[in-house]
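As a warm-up, study this chain.
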Amino acid sequence: MDKTTEGAGSVENGTPSLATDTEKGAIQSIERAGQILSLFDQDTLNLSVAIVSERLGLNRTTAHRYLLSLQSSAFLDKTNGPGPILDQLSAFISSRRKVLSLAPAIMRELSDKTQMTVVMSLLGRSGPVVALVEEAAVGTIVVTVRVGTVLEPKSSQSRVLVAFQSEQTAIAQHLAGMSESEAKAEEAELAKVRRDRIGWADLSHLGLAAVAAPIFGSRDVKAAMAFIGTAKMLPSSEKSGPLVEDLKAAAAKLSKLVGG
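Now compare it with the structure written out below.
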């Protein structure tokens, strides 16, 4: 029996499978929902059956069904204006942009003062991602990391970003792939991060060190700011030394600006 796989589903003996048709229908529904939500603009603050029907070429019954579905899933409110999910996404994006616009000056000042490389990361789909880097302007040794790097679970910034997540799925993803003993030890590290509001990386075997502090918004953690360097430049035994206090002060300053 010939069997060919293509795209999302399979074709067997030239007949599309039921799963393929179902998935295709779901994708088309998402595309249609996107088209409807894109009708919002400065002149269209609320949608209606007439607007959706006329602008997208749908019959009124179909337009009405889509609007009801978008209401029930919180993309629209009861007046067919932007719903809670859109408000949440808007606030999230605005907050991230605020962090990214305010952080560079604070990071540069911190790097100049301490002669350390300062890094800031955001939580992405597959884990914390490096968003900004300010390298030390002086010194013969500069330890750095590329923007866009996805950090390992036991990095200082990963631990800080995960420790303050309210969603259990984020913590579960962080612990995925670890053995039972490793996961237990990592949960203890996350508890320390929550207690001290500071997180260290497991890098001593490489002769490197990293320590991170959380950046909070009005309600939750938005980013992590970290020092990275050699173990000699940043000894992990210095749990509350001058460098750590400078990092915590800079993170608190940025948190105040972001949450204000």
